[in-house]
Amino acid sequence: MKSSPLIFVALDYPDAQSAWPLVRQLDPQLCGVKVGKELFTSAGPQFVRELVERGFRVFLDLKFHDIPTTVAKAVKAAAELGVYMVNVHAAGGRRMLEAARAALAEREQRPLLIAVTVLTSMTADDLHELGLNVTPAEQVSRLARLTKSAGLDGVVCSAQEAEMLQEQCGNDFVLVTPGIRPAGSEQGDQKRVMTPEQAARQGIQYLVIGRPITQASSPAEALQQIQASLTA
Ligand SMILES: O=C(O)c1cc(=O)[nH]c(=O)n1[C@@H]1O[C@H](COP(=O)(O)O)[C@@H](O)[C@H]1O
Fold first, then answer.
1. What pLDDT digit, counting tens, does each position of 45-68 carry?
2. What is the pTM of this model?
3. Is 66 a catalytic residue?
4. Closest by alpha carbon to 43, among 54, 35, 34?
């Protein structure tokens, strides 16, 4: 039987004050937390340090995408915060990915280094508009193979692409999947979605879930329900 994935709760709140009520109800042994662009821009590295001090596995989701030197330094700064996982955009290309990997190489304890393939909010039409005449799955596959050959730990993709990537990149390659939507919940801007139960059956290591938890009337209960559904 495949082991249950770890859920990273996306703390997509405007500031630390709004995030704390949920964080205080979470058990760091039972879930991770994701700090993205909105919260990091307002609450900064100190908030991340506090989460790490409380024992949380923190996914610092800043999706670095820049010239190799800049991304390498940004990834190193993230590692110094003690985060569990950090991400970059695979579209930054091989040299950028390798520079990010090299920046962590000497560290005894380093975060998982993950590359975003095709955002889960994107469709084939979005890719075509960018001049990419491929399906999201084809582009995810291409970027995941690049990421693996550059020595990174894994990718962010949609759960819909998990089976394909496990075949192409092996089961040790880490898959992180946002776009998770419990049956009946609002899809919002996500396009390539899957329910948590289906995603768990794929053997994905990490699920990222935001609004279905944070917008629920009781976020902590919503998380518990999802977790219970994964082991049912
Ligand atoms: O890297 C990410 O975390 C990410 C990549 C991606 O392709 N799609 C995606 O939704 N995310 C993040 O995952 C979270 C999903 O949140 P919800 O759509 O509210 O569940 C957001 O914080 C996004 O920034």
1. 999 999 999 999 999 999 999 999
2. 0.98
3. yes
4. 35
Nearest to 199 by CA among 220, 221, 183, 185: 183
For residue 107, the CA-to-ligand 1 centroid distance in Å is: 28
What is the domain partition of the chain in residue ranges?
A: 6-231
Q: Does domain 6-231 have CATH number 3.20.20.70?
A: yes
**Catalytic residue (choose from 15, 37, 61, 191):** 61
- Return the biggest CA–CA distance within the chain: 46
Q: How far apart are CA 101 and CA 28, in angstroms?
A: 27
Residue among 117, 180, 208, 226 to mutate when testing ligand 1 (max atoms within 8 A of CB): 208
Active site residue 172: no
> Is the predicted ipTM greater than 0.90, yes or no?
yes
> Ligand 1 centroid vs 196 CA: distance in angstroms?
14
Q: Where are the alpha helices (DSSP H) in the chain?
A: 16-25, 37-53, 68-80, 94-104, 124-129, 136-149, 162-169, 196-201, 211-214, 219-231
Closest CA to 118 of 100, 136, 106: 136
List % helix, strand, coil for the chain (3-state, nearest 5): 45, 15, 35
In testing the pocket of ligand 1, which one of 62, 120, 189, 209 has its CB within 8 Å of the most ligand atoms?
Answer: 120
pLDDT tens digits for 18-48? 999 999 999 999 999 999 999 999 999 999 9
Q: Which residues are annotated as a binding site for substrate?
A: 12, 34, 61-70, 120, 181, 190, 210-211
What's the CA gap between 24 and 155, in Å, rounded?
Answer: 29
